[in-house]
Amino acid sequence: MKLFHISFFLIFSVSWSSSFAQESLPPHIKDNIIYPVLDFHPWVGVMPVANPAMAYDPSLDYKVALDLYGKVKDSTAIHPAILEVARTYNLTIANGVPAGKIQIAAVIHGGLVQAILSEEEYHQKYQTSNPNLVALKKLEEVGVKFYVCGQSLGFNNIEVEKITPIVKVAISAKTSFVTLDQRGYSYLNVSED
């Protein structure tokens, strides 16, 4: 499987996004960050890079399989892995890739299945609205496809009817990544646990 090596920048951004998720941006970021398409959260923006050594090539099709897992640690906040889906999209657009050349498939598994519960189920479990649903809807609008591991749903005792219809149920995360790889998608882990 094609494996992207996560750069220092991505690791830095993931750790910072969870550290400051609902706080205001530090001035050095706030004064420079841009939001080319998605702007539903402060940490989905990207920092411009002048004259990058590894520039995006708009002639390529950018097909990315994002690995989303973890636990719901703050039920009132959008999960950091979901924010990274938006940052991945914004980063690609910000660097000149046309929207029509971007195909992102986000595969959700493990404890993160709790983040995709329907509004009613999430409220019943956490006594608050599901902040992830707004993000999922915005990402769906720009063409991101979401899949959830059917095995994770089963192990977590979650019926398909209890999750948002934005996310489609796959047999498993494993088979999803193998299938996406065979279809030319590059694997990228954007989760932090």
UniProtKB/TrEMBL annotation:
Q: Which Pfam families match?
A: DsrE
Per the UniProt entry, the signal peptide is: 1-21
Database matches in SUPFAM superfamilies: DsrEFH-like
Which InterPro entries does its entry note?
DsrEFH-like, Sulphur_relay_DsrE/F-like
Taking the record's annotation, the residue ranges forming a coiled coil are none
Keyword annotations of the record: Signal
Q: Which Gene3D superfamilies match?
A: DsrEFH-like (3.40.1260.10)
What this protein is called in its record is Intracellular sulfur oxidation protein, DsrE/DsrF family
Species this chain originates from: Algoriphagus locisalis
